[in-house]
Amino acid sequence: MFCRNQSARATIARGSALEMEIRRGKFRQSIFMDTPQDSDIQKKIDYEIRMREGACKLLAACSQRDQALEASKSLLTCNSRIMAYMSELQRMKEAQVMQRVARRSSDAGPMDDRSPCKGKVAISDLRIPLMWKDTEYFKNKGELHRCAVFCLLQLGGEIFDTDMVMVDRTLTDICFDNTIVFNEASPGFELRLELYSCCSEDDYSAGSTPRKLASKLSSSLGRSSGKKLRAALEPGACSPVSNGGAAPLLLPVPPVPGPKYHLLAHTTLTLSHVQDSFRTHDLTITGNEECSYWLPLYGSACCRLAAQPHCMTQQMMSGCLRVKLGGDPQGWTNVYAILKGTNLFCYRRQEDIEANVEPLLTIGINKETRIRAAERDPHSKAQSICISNQYGGEEVTHTLATDCREDTQRWMEAFWQQFFDMSQWKQCCDELMKIDQPSPRKPALITAKQGSLYHEMAPPLSTPPSCEGLLLQDNAVSAEIRALLSSYYSDSY
């Protein structure tokens, strides 16, 4: 009988399939080690999966048209966010692999690590004009075609949705009053705007039909048999399943009866479309008159697209300097300088900033500014920086001094980075554009009707009562759905 002693050692043949699998596993583990950013995205994916599960439950339980439309809208938004987060996670993994390969490559040349700053991009006052026929709008003839529409906006891994608007021939424009702000945009951003539409004339109470049937049959078959039947007719859950303790698998959403939104039109906005005013942009229309969700779009969308680069709103550099005032070679004044936006603000003391005291001197830093590091001043024995600007056709130069060469290098690097950011963000750095912060989003108000899913209650939560024989009296289920709805609308903006 074979007995392994302490000195015995299991060996694996070199080049065998088992050895290759072990090496491949170690390589994957080293390459795809989760970073803090990966964990954050995974948490977002898990959160949206829970939101999607709640939307599926709501959609299957809805018997009213407005409720079903809102639930279907939430389901589509959750699916879009999940796909966006998965794509972002994939891009991060690929970037990690390429970074490791570049580090290991012996022939990799020097790389320019300068990258532009991030910024905010906001879209507001969104209007989409409609082009009804004369007989429909002026003569009020034909069927009153009504559709529920909303917009989905995506920039990178951020996705937001607007409020749902009911549209018929009495409207000349589809108006969305939401102000949507993307906080982590780069100058090369692509903001995709998608317009979704759904015909609101269909009956969406079919989602509760299996439950009604189960309730009627359970009353005639008895408690035990009825419970089994209700379990068999229960709509499938769309939550992820565990994979042996590993990351959850993303399963497709089960088919849930109810309204379905369709992509009606879309467009992509970039940095060239940014302007501190109301502008018109072309739309690509994907539907046609044969579709039930069709609306006669004019083919354009009007909105205000503004951007605020971080270099225009944040302090990019600060520190103590000496500035020469007047023509006296010895006329140096100690200041505390802040580089922000298109100006270098020079204060007498650092405390003056919090006290909102006017700066002693303001030096323009824009695309036309010329900056150079001068030789050491023989009088002060300090490194100096010369900043030249054109004012009324005359060149004005301000001279700044630092204590050491290292400080001069840091200030010069801050100036070069500022110029680089301005060159990338272009017209967004001419002057600071105004962005109104969006107000917190509240859950949609649903009036109490016979057979509705919600009854009125103290805001912002609502308590789901019994709905057409639905078994929603369970406190745990009610609390779960209320929490999902409340957190979804509070985290949307």
Tell me what the structure shows.
- The protein is an alpha+beta fold and 493 residues long.
- It is 31% helix and 24% strand.
- The chain has a 7-stranded antiparallel β-sheet with strand order 15-14-13-12-18-17-16. Strands 2, 3, 4, 7, 8 and 10 form a 6-stranded antiparallel β-sheet that branches.
- β13 and β14 form a beta hairpin.
- The protein is elongated and about 85 Å long.
What topology, given as strand order, has the largest sheet? Answer: 15-14-13-12-18-17-16
Biggest β-sheet: count, sense, barrel? 7 strands, antiparallel
Counting DSSP E segments of at least 2 residues, the number of strands comes to 18
Strand/helix succession: HHHEHEEEEEEHHEEEEHEEEHEEEEHH
Q: Give the fraction of residues assigned to helices.
A: 25-40%
- Report the uncertain regions: 4-10, 27-32, 106-111, 203-214, 232-251, 444-478
Question: How would you describe the shape?
Answer: elongated
Head-to-tail CA distance between termini: 70 Å
Beta percentage is 15-25%
Oligomeric composition of the shown chains: single chain
Put simply, the count of helices is: 10
User: What's the mean pLDDT score?
Assistant: 75
Helix-and-strand structural type:
alpha+beta
Radius of gyration: 31 Å
